[in-house]
Amino acid sequence: MTAAFGVVSISASVRSGEVRALDVLDAHLEVVASHEAGVHAFNEVTAEQARVAASMIDGIVAGGGDPGPLAGVPIALKDNLCTAGTPTTCSSKILQGWHPPYDATVVQRLAAAGAVFVGKTNLDEFAMGSSTENSAFGPTRNPHDQTRVPGGSSGGSAAAVAAGFAAGALGSDTGGSIRQPAALCGVVGAKPTYGLVSRYGLIAFASSLDQVGPFAMSVADAAALLDVISGPDPMDSTCLGEATARSASRLGSGVEGLRIGLITEMQGAEGMADDVKARLALAADALSGAGAKVDQVSVPAVTFGLSAYYLIAPAEASSNLARYDGVRYGLRAPGSADITDMYLRSRSAGFGDEVKRRIMLGTYALSAGYYDAYYGQAQKVRTLIVKDFAAAYENFDVLLSPTAPSTAFEIGAKSADPLTMYLNDVFTIPSNLAGHPAVSVPFGVGDDGMPIGVQVLAPALAEPLMFQVAEVLESLAPPAPLSASRRSLRALGAPADRGAAL
Questions:
Q1: At what angle do helices 21-39 and 47-62 cross, to 10 degrees?
Q2: Among 9, 11, 78, 415, the one annotated catalytic
Q3: Which are the contacts of 73, defined by CB distance < 8 A and separation ≥ 6?
Q4: Residue 235 — φ and ψ, nearest 5°?
Q5: Which of 19, 221, 302, 376 could form a disulfide with 430 if both were Cys (CB 3.0 to 4.6 A apart)?
Q6: Is it the case that residue 294 has pLDDT exceeding 60?
Q7: For the segment 352-406, what is each residue's pLDDT rounded down to a tens digit?
Q8: Domain residues of the chain, as ranges?
Q9: Catalytic residue at 249?
Q10: Mean pLDDT score of the chain, rounded to an integer?
């Protein structure tokens, strides 16, 4: 379907000299030029820098060298990943125009592997949201239906891949911010084990939950991206100190004999649509037909995940965002009478409503007299979730659940009710609290014709097994719709001067 534009296929074609990296890039930039105005996936398109990088890759290939495993692959970066000399804003006024002096570790690793960066993608401000409507620079729109949201907070990255603006993208996932938009946009999105990927250069939201992960059009492409960005990093003390098995190492192994648990508590959650439930049942049946042993499993504590998350994450955000004070970098409001007034004016003008809401909630949860009652209790619930997952994995190799409770909703439909918006992450949050990996795989469409994703969850460091199951699920899924812009990218592959691989 879209393999010709995939991460693995593009790299193979560029490394062999079959196509030029510059031609691959130009094909994607043509689609950006034609469709970005309607989608608004990017805060910044870095076309000139990308052309320089692509030309260098072509020069390496022409000289008989190997540019790396991602040679010439167009990649989009979520705008909370530091990029030296290129604005990194977190879609917030308080960082508008800030140019980091260094690259995030994941950016360094992608560049070293030969990737070409096409731009920085829009997000919910400071990654706080489930629809990419909370951006200071306006909402991103779903490429399949521009009246609807792409999910969030990594909605710009998901939309960029779904729209054909990039072959792959990076996002960050604190409570589902990769997997939920992947489901709503009909792409693959993976959150790795906490500590597998360095967070150095990722602007922090909630440090015990944040993880960087990939978006792609296929499971194999997502695994390839994850293999490049993962691994030890002395710049991140929470990063695992030893190399782990390659995420792609078990692709093609099938699911014969694997034990797959269908999480009972995630089949009738509040707000879950009937078409999502039906798709989950079909996915379970498909895996069973492929030889897996599928059965129900109870993970009782996941029902408290949403409540625990919205105490832990805001508490950590309150601490992390204290550094944005108008003194060291970013916005400084003019006309302040003294430093306290400057703090107040700068933070009031620089932060949007959702960020302010979470800062206040987190500060309250950490305050004297409430710490034990709220934050302390939430951490105890987190421990219960870890224990319940451990018990489930004693009898099952991986678990299965919906990714999002519904298909993409209309822009503005939930923005006035934060609690309703928060329910969009009810199925994804437990993996973040446990620190476990999970991946969303497209599995058909809902009654409205919009994509639905099914989530494969795995124990810590079981990414190879997770992708093994996800690949089979992908192969058994009904044909997925392509956005109009991605169809136009495929059409651009016909001219001979773009090479047969496109």
A1: 160
A2: 78
A3: 7, 10, 11, 14, 24, 114, 115, 116, 167, 168
A4: -80, -10
A5: 302
A6: yes
A7: 999 999 999 999 999 988 899 999 999 999 999 999 999 999 999 999 999 999 9
A8: 3-244+253-303+380-498
A9: no
A10: 94
Beta bridge partners of 119: 45, 76
Three-state SS for 264? Answer: helix
What 3-state DSSP class applies to 28?
helix
Is there a catalytic annotation at residue 485? no
Catalytic position from the list 9, 153, 318, 483: 153
User: Any bridge partners for residue 258, and if so which?
Assistant: none
Q: Catalytic: 120?
A: no
From 9, 13, 92, 177, the catalytic residue: 177
3-244+253-303+380-498, CATH topology level: Amidase signature (AS) enzymes (3.90.1300)
Q: Alpha helix locations (H) across 269-406? A: 274-289, 305-320, 339-350, 353-366, 377-393
Per-residue pLDDT, averaged over 333-357, amounts to: 92
Q: How long a stretch of residues is the chain?
A: 502
Q: Of all helices (H) and strands (E), which one includes residue 156?
A: helix 155-162
What pLDDT is stored for residue 502 in this prediction? 40
Q: Which helix (H) or strand (E) holds 74?
A: strand 74-78
Alpha-carbon distance of 380 to 389, in angstroms, equals 14
**In the structure encoding, which two tokens stand for residue 441, read together?**
């795989």
Name which of 411, 460, 468 is nearest 131 in CA terms: 411
